[in-house]
Automatic annotation (TrEMBL):
Family from the record: Belongs to the cytidylate kinase family. Type 1 subfamily.
Compartment(s) of residence: Cytoplasm
Binding site for ATP: G13, P14, S15, G16, T17, G18, K19, S20, S21
Keywords: ATP-binding, Cytoplasm, Kinase, Nucleotide-binding, Transferase
Protein name, as recorded: Cytidylate kinase
Species classification: Bacteria, Bacillati, Actinomycetota, Actinomycetes, Kitasatosporales
Length: 226
């Protein structure tokens, strides 16, 4: 492979492992595009909620899965997401969407639709792309040049997440995270999982800067190898 060939990096793992911050920083440092696939699942969930679709009814979700038009920006310095032309970057982080996204993202028709979108975005990245999610290395981009699986203890993940949510209750945050991970890991279609050929990085005792440096080094080694 020539060194000018785009480099595809898949970063998977549960929430609170530093996936988004790491992926954005690595992409920015290396001049690569960036895709937050969780934001796409949140965007389709936001559309279902806004349009009165019963998110507890998989057949209703499946029937509507093709309707919203979801556009993702891929600049790591200013990630953007719109649904039918509306900027939903703020609303998709709200509690109502967060509590329903596991149910919506478990529906196979939703996954097929969003996976196609992700593959076409990755295929059009000129220098390469860092794609973060839950099933990128296993399902979306199984031929990625580098696969990273980030982990951290539930305590560390809850502490980081409640910090981001400006002092949310630690115990409640931990419970909600564990519940969402269990749902994401146990669903039938492309669950949260580590690919056999992924490099696992436990971030529990690492600073964000250390995780970023570790991943940048791994990408540079891959590029040097080819
Ligand atoms: O990374 P996040 O917390 O924004 O992701 C929101 C939800 O989207 C997560 O609970 C599971 C789902 N998701 C998924 O099923 N597959 C992905 N590749 C990314 C996210």
């Amino acid at each position: 492979m020539e060194s000018s060939t785009p480099v595809i990096v898949a970063i998977d793992g549960p929430s609170g492992t530093g996936k988004s911050s790491t992926s954005k920083a690595v992409a920015a440092q290396l001049g690569l595009s960036y895709l937050d696939t969780g934001a796409q699942y949140r965007a389709i969930t936001w559309w279902m909620v806004t349009n009165g679709i019963d998110t507890a009814d998989p057949s209703a979700i499946a029937a509507a899965a093709g309707k919203p038009e979801i556009l993702s920006g891929t600049d790591p310095e200013k990630p953007a997401i719109t649904v039918d032309g509306f900027d939903v970057a703020g609303p998709i982080r709200e509690q109502d969407v967060t509590s329903k996204v596991s149910a919506v993202s478990a529906v196979p028709e939703v996954r097929t639709r969003i996976t196609e979108l992700q593959r076409s975005i990755a295929a059009s990245a000129v220098t390469g792309i860092v794609v973060e999610g839950r099933d990128i290395g296993t399902t979306v981009l199984p031929d990625a040049d580098l696969k990273i699986f980030l982990t951290a203890s539930p305590e560390a993940r809850a502490a980081r997440r409640s910090g981001e949510l400006k002092g949310a209750d630690l115990h409640a945050t931990r419970e909600a995270l564990v519940k969402r991970d269990a749902a994401d890991s146990s669903r039938k279609t492309s669950p949260l999982a580590k690919a056999d050929d992924a490099v696992e990085v436990d971030t529990t005792d690492l600073t964000l800067q250390q995780v970023i440096e570790c991943v940048v080094t791994l990408v540079e080694e891959k590029r040097a190898d080819r």
